[in-house]
Amino acid sequence: MALRSSDDDEAFRDEVRAFLEAKFTPELRALTARQAGVFADGDLARRWHRILFERGWIAPAWPTEYGGPGWTPRQGAIFQEECARAGTPRLPGMGLSLCAPVIMRYGTDAQKAFFLPRMLSGEHYWCQGYSEPQSGSDLASLQTRAVRDGDDYVVSGSKIWTTHAQFANWIFLLVRTSTEGKPQAGISFLVSPMDAPGISVRPIISMSGEHEVNQVFFDNVRVPVANRMGAENEGWTVAKYLLEFERGGGSSGVPLSVALERLVDIARNQPADGAASLYEDPVFRRDLARLEIEVMALAWTERRLAGRRRDGESIGNAAASLKKLCASELGQKIEDLSMRALGLYALPDQRGALGTGANESPIGPEYAVTPTARFLNGRASTIFGGSSEVQRNILARVALGL
Predict the structure, then answer these.
(1) Beta-bridge mates of residue 154
(2) Window from 17-21, 107-111, 322-326 with minimum mean pLDDT
(3) Are 135 and 126 contacting, i.e. CB atoms less than 8 angstroms apart?
(4) Are strands 170-176 and 126-129 parallel, antiparallel or unpaired?
(5) What would the pLDDT profile of 271-284 be if each residue is shown by its tens digit?
């Protein structure tokens, strides 16, 4: 892919900026600024999804045959850059970014015709049913059972850490359809409406105060066999394909660059020892410079991976694991440094001033409202999507040829 912007690219950047100036209203900006979770709250996410859908920009990575905008990899990067710098709501990608590629590759024509347009429009809001109370990083040990009964599977079990299950109306999930052979050999990939009889959702509140994740229970839920993606007992192959997009898809480099800019703003404005700002501390500047270099390297790596995917290549598990490992650990380093820069303002519990339903005034300056919640919420980033230990094991196996 081209590494330098052309005149057409810069014209496209101007088009994106004009769109954001017109559609990302002051009201939406104010609501988004108080979001500390991984994704925007459900109502805010739906509003921004609809705005992008009406412009034809909701699925930048989708092929044009399914409703994608037909952008070049450079245009996709520009769009992500401008949205990150404007601070637009971060949309949950369980449908558009994770399940959609699976349907495009493994779905039947009927499944593609039914699900993809509804993902695109936002009519379907998706969540992911992978982890279980006893099966997190060791996903092959999952125990949620699906027993064939005529044209249905009868599903029983539980999924946990299910992001935005309280908003979703569809879920994709891994289930055990056989106990013979290796654990990976008996897994299937199903999709189900969330209002199916027997599904219930229990909220899990994070230590930062957000209600993002849930436990989902399946009590003899009937899921049509027609809602299976791929062949029975071959869901592990489907799951691995999806993980390429969960770990290696999207862009983390630009959002992390924006987070660094927020960090610099705090360090410049928040008085430190002796009333000088922390930004004047040479040790802090050294740590900041290291992070800037690492974020820049990640951003260029993501551009290369995006180019490979647009050329029809699979980026592979190793590249996906490397990207996920670097992005999640860099995010935590930035959050750690932000807490240092905040000083005493890192101590107050600001959860009452966060989210779309906030009803409390913030404590301290505006830049002090979200960093503590982001720091607490971000502890999970090196666990979800496969822990850092799992990613290092994958990379070690590739390096050793195992």
Answers:
(1) 147, 222
(2) 322-326
(3) no
(4) parallel
(5) 776 667 888 889 99
> pLDDT by residue (tens digit) across 167-181?
999 999 999 999 998
Q: What does the pLDDT look like over 303-316, one tens digit per residue?
A: 777 666 666 666 66
Report d(CA 373, CA 370) in Å as an integer: 5
What single DSSP character describes residue 88? Answer: P
Q: Can you give the pTM of this predicted structure?
A: 0.85
Where does CATH 1.10.540.10 sit in the chain? 7-91
Nearest to 160 by CA among 383, 351, 355, 331: 383
Helix axes 42-55, 26-33, angle to 10 degrees: 140
Domain 251-400 has CATH 1.10.1740.10: no
Residues 51-65: pLDDT tens digits?
A: 999 999 999 989 999
Fill in the amino acid letter for 132: E
CA distance 332 to 371: 11
Q: Is 256 left (phi over 0), alpha (psi -120 to 50) or beta?
A: alpha
Closest to 78 in 3D by CA, of 231, 251, 295, 282: 251
CATH fold of 7-91:
Butyryl-Coa Dehydrogenase, subunit A; domain 1 (1.10.540)
Single out the catalytic residue among 132, 212, 246, 302: 246
Q: Indicate if 360 belongs to the active site.
A: no
Q: Are 362 and 353 in contact (CB under 8 A)?
A: yes
Listing DSSP states for 174-190 in one string gives EEE---SSSGGGGEEEE
* Predicted local confidence at residue 51, as pLDDT: 98
